[in-house]
Amino acid sequence: MQHFYFVEKPANIRKSMRVVGYTHSLVPSRKLVRSETIHISLRESELSLYLALSEGNRQLLRCAQQEFYQVILYREPSAVNLQAFQQFYNQFAKRKKLKGIGKLQMETILLLNQQGALLLSEVQSICGQTMCYRLDIVHAKKAMSYYEVTCDAAAMATHLQRPLRYVNRFLLWHNLLHLKQQGFILYDMGELTDDPHVRALKQSFGGQVVNVYSGYITLSKIRARLLGVKKWRK
């Protein structure tokens, strides 16, 4: 299977490919699922990116600067790093009754990692306790938010609960600046859901709302049916 990320024009598909996957393509297609995301241009200056933030975000980032965060960037995360992330994410998902990262999702994560297409970042407290993770897909100088998870306040010591309020936004802002410094040109905030809190958070970082298209295309009717069943089961 051939898979394309963030394509801006019709992809050059090898004739031998029976199934082609797309993630957040900008090329409209009735065969793919349309969704909304937010694109943040990393070509802008750091000052322009900062001014595009909501006033609430700027205030929270000023508070975050007073905290003793330890940021760890795993540009080439090991299997152990990713397993630690999976365990942390699934503990949070279990408490919140959300879908965790199962075997199939982990196989995709490991495959992306083999292709050098992942950036894993972590924030630890001053005493070394993990507070937040972000997992981004990185490809062709473009990046996309893939997974994010913040520790449950109930699992933190009392003196760490206040710093926990700022950590997710702090890490996202840190990563935007890091990617910009590495020459990346675009950050995709991930799918905009109907959850008003999620939409508000993503829109508070500025950027432009765009339509993107994801899914699988196959010329085989049998494979198309199988993919349809797979999609329905999700």
UniProtKB/TrEMBL annotation:
> What organism does the UniProt record list as the source?
Lysinibacillus macroides
Q: What name does this protein carry? A: BioF2-like acetyltransferase domain-containing protein
